[in-house]
Amino acid sequence: MKWLFLLIFLLFFVILFGGCSSLKKDYGSFAKCLTENGVKMYGAYWCPVCKQQEEMFGKSWQYVNYTECSLPNRAGQTTICSSLGITGYPTWEFKEGTMIPGKLSFKQLSQNSNCALP
Fold first, then answer.
1. Given CB 3.0 to 4.6 Å as the disulfide criterion, which of 27, 68, 74, 103 pairs with 60?
2. Given pLDDT bands bounded at 50, 70 and 90, which one contains residue 18?
3. Spatial separation of the C-alpha atoms in residues 10 and 1, rounded to whole Å
């Protein structure tokens, strides 16, 4: 009887936590739209806010056009980022050349790119 109770209890948690993970939105089409519309994010591997932006997208981050600006061991900035005048991370660049530094919400990214949110 204890085994049956334990089995039901475990099954309940598997269903509960398995179901919760499916509640996360898929931002793949949104991330692809950003890239198709010329949106780029410039960041640094050591930047905690850049990491937060990446985590917002989850698995869809692979579709975001990202440029690493930091040289290994924080030894300076890449030529591309330096030539663009990027002084903070993250910095988002939009199609018309507008650069917006800082963490942007999905709503802000949508408004600046004309990409619809899922």
1. 27
2. very low
3. 14
Whether 92 and 64 have beta carbons less than 8 Å apart is answered as: no
The pLDDT tens digits of the residues spanning 80-95 come to: 999 999 999 999 999 9
118 contacts 27 by C-beta, under 8 angstroms:
yes
Cα Rg, the chain, nearest whole Å: 20
The CATH architecture assigned to 40-112 reads 3-Layer(aba) Sandwich (3.40)
How does DSSP assign the chain, residue by residue?
A: -HHHHHHHHHHHHHHHHHHHHTTSPP-HHHHHHHHHTT-EEEE-TT-HHHHHHHHHHGGGGGGS-EEE-BPGGG--B-HHHHHTT--SSSEEE-TTS-EEES---HHHHHHHHTPPP-
